[in-house]
Amino acid sequence: MALLVAWGFMRITRAPSLAAIFAIGGLFWLSILLALGGLDSFTRTNFPVGDTLSSTPQNPRTPPDTAP
């Protein structure tokens, strides 16, 4: 769709060469930003919150709080 807009509506093929260079650079930069945004979900880690990460309780005989 970006190519359709660039070549169809912006008429990049008939524009000066500097405009074509900037259009290609913009598409390149957009692809870098989209790739980094897509990789964000792969680099996140989920740490469980609960008894395994908390410190040891002072009184182990007390039952844990339960929601009603």
TrEMBL record:
Task: Could you list this entry's UniProt keywords, alphabetically sorted.
Answer: Membrane, Transmembrane, Transmembrane helix
Segments of skewed composition (Polar residues): 49-59
User: Transmembrane ranges?
Assistant: 20-39
Question: Which residue intervals make up region (Disordered)?
Answer: 49-68
Q: What is this protein called?
A: Uncharacterized protein
Q: Say which species the protein is native to.
A: Acetobacter oeni
The opening ranks of the lineage are: Bacteria, Pseudomonadati, Pseudomonadota, Alphaproteobacteria, Acetobacterales
